[in-house]
TrEMBL record:
Keyword check for Lipid metabolism: no
Functional note: Acts as a regulatory subunit of the 26 proteasome which is involved in the ATP-dependent degradation of ubiquitinated proteins.
PROSITE patterns per record: PCI
UniProt keyword annotations, A-Z: Proteasome
Protein name, entry field: PCI domain-containing protein
Highest classification ranks of the organism: Eukaryota, Viridiplantae, Streptophyta, Embryophyta, Tracheophyta
């Protein structure tokens, strides 16, 4: 008995690989059946669930499994089968074992191949090529899938099509050819608008905004965004991306208040697992708040998994908070490569004025009377005529209302006025107003997100209808829990 148990537990590597590949193949067949059912009943939620299951399965897909699945799903010898099979590597180890194991459960292909299943095969092959870092083959596969999509107009394909659009753009971005597909994306967005494909519209709009921002074409991005049709967001991921791109556009256009709101909302709505996306949102939000004259809380820099990535921005914030121009220059030079890679270098150049203003405010609070030469020395102005520069900086700060002081031109000094009670000004009212507006906005969004069963006020529910409603609510809850954040 002991020997029998040991023999069962100690499987050879080839047996374990065969069992895992057979299990993966079985899952893919179940997904194909789900797509077939969704196509027949025209239920988009089944197609969406199939896509989510595929994303969770993508790391287990090998070339042999994919080749077997294509033989199962597509008609051998067809145009789609020949095209997709050319992208899948041949001659892998254990091919014979997988074919033998799957042949017992393989069903005969249906006479009529659903268009959804064919498009899904393009999608899964494209996923495999990108995971294998075969970006040139991924470009060819994605281009073929887009050409096939143009001839199909079914709402049940919209979910798969939106993913194909995303990976189509990603494959060209990874090879540095993103500008080549801008015209194609515009044409696809036009077609999605005419077909009332709202999920495709929001996906393609984000891809076009990303395309423009990648080449710093902010004016064109804003023109497209302002003229694109508005509708309720269908995907949380796409809505988060839209808010992030909108925040970047507003920042470049000096509309810092709107940019701050968009960036913070994008970071708040993004899934916890989308760490890279949330880091990018926080980087831009930190710079926008600094440009507004605010100092971000320390807790922002100590979020789990973000400490290392936000370290340069923490030191930058410290330099702005102190108002030390020399420290600001040191941090800027120390992390210049990081800022260039994040494409935030131009924003950091704008912060120099804020550093000087903060330092000047600290000086005006500390001294009731100070000479302009001492102001230039404390601000560490490195110029040919620092006293004249200090005088112009102080004059501009007084005009803008940053400090409450006067300039004694005869004696060459700055005279600060006594600081009054802040509660006698409108600042507390402004702060409370912004907080109330934020809470009201959050409440309105929560109300819009509520879902109610139809006709509950007109008729009483029977036991059967109540059970059916509860089952639908459980499926909806599971759908929201399984919401895929891999695209971030």
């Amino acid at each position: 008995m002991t020997q029998d148990v040991e023999m069962k537990e100690n499987q050879t590597p080839s047996q374990s690989i065969i069992s895992s590949t057979t299990s993966t193949m079985q899952h893919l067949k179940e997904i194909a059946a789900l797509i077939d059912t969704g196509s027949y009943t025209k239920e988009v939620r089944r197609i969406a669930r199939a896509v989510r299951l595929t994303i969770g399965l993508r790391r287990k897909i090998t070339g042999s499994v994919l080749s077997s699945f294509l033989d199962f799903a597509l008609v051998p010898g067809s145009e789609a089968h020949s095209r997709l099979s050319s992208f899948v590597p041949k001659g892998e180890e254990y091919d014979m074992e997988v074919d033998t194991a799957s042949s017992a459960t393989q069903a005969a292909p249906s006479k009529h191949l659903p268009a959804e299943l064919e498009i899904y095969c393009y999608f899964i092959v494209l996923l495999f090529l990108i995971d294998q870092k075969k970006y040139n083959e991924a470009k060819a596969c994605s281009s073929a899938s887009i050409a096939r999509l143009k001839n199909v107009n079914r709402r049940t394909i919209d979910v798969i099509a939106s993913r194909l659009f995303f990976y189509y753009s990603l494959s060209y971005e990874l090879t540095g050819d993103l500008a080549e597909i801008r015209g194609t994306l515009l044409a696809l967005h036009h077609s999605a608008t005419l077909r009332h494909d709202e999920l495709g519209q929001e996906t393609l709009l984000n891809l076009l905004l990303r395309n423009y921002l990648h080449y710093n074409l902010y004016d064109q991005a804003e023109k497209l965004r302002s003229k694109a049709p508005r509708f309720e967001a269908h995907s949380n991921q796409q809505f988060c991306r839209y808010l992030f791109y909108l925040g970047k556009i507003r920042t470049i256009q000096l509309e810092y208040t709107d940019a701050k709101e968009s960036l913070l909302q994008a970071a708040r709505k993004a899934p916890i697992a989308a760490l890279g996306f949330r880091i990018q949102c926080n980087k831009w939000a930190i710079l926008v708040r600094l440009l507004l004259g605010e100092i971000p809380e320390r807790s922002i820099f100590t979020q789990k998994g973000m400490e290392k990535a936000l370290r340069p921005y923490f030191e930058l914030t410290n330099a702005v908070r102190i108002g030390d121009l020399e420290l600001f220059r040191t941090v800027q030079e120390k992390f210049s490569d990081t800022f260039s890679q994040d494409r935030t270098h131009n924003l950091i150049v704008r912060l120099r004025h804020n550093v000087i203003r903060t330092g000047l405010r600290n000086i005006s609070i500390s001294y009731s009377r100070i000479s302009l030469s001492d102001v230039a020395q404390k601000l560490r102005l490195n110029s040919e005529n620092p006293v004249a520069d200090a005088e112009s900086i102080v004059a501009k700060a007084i005009r803008d209302g940053a400090i409450d002081a006067t300039i004694d031109h005869k004696n060459g000094c700055m005279v600060s006025k006594e600081t009054g009670d802040i509660y006698s000004t409108n600042e507390p009212q402004t702060a409370f107003n912004s907080r109330i507006a934020f809470c009201l906005n959050m409440h309105n969004e929560a109300v819009r997100a509520l879902r109610f069963p139809p006709n509950t006020h007109k008729e009483k529910e029977s036991d059967e209808k109540r059970r059916e409603r509860k089952q639908q609510e459980e499926e909806l809850a599971k759908h929201m829990a399984e919401e895929d954040d891999d695209d971030f």
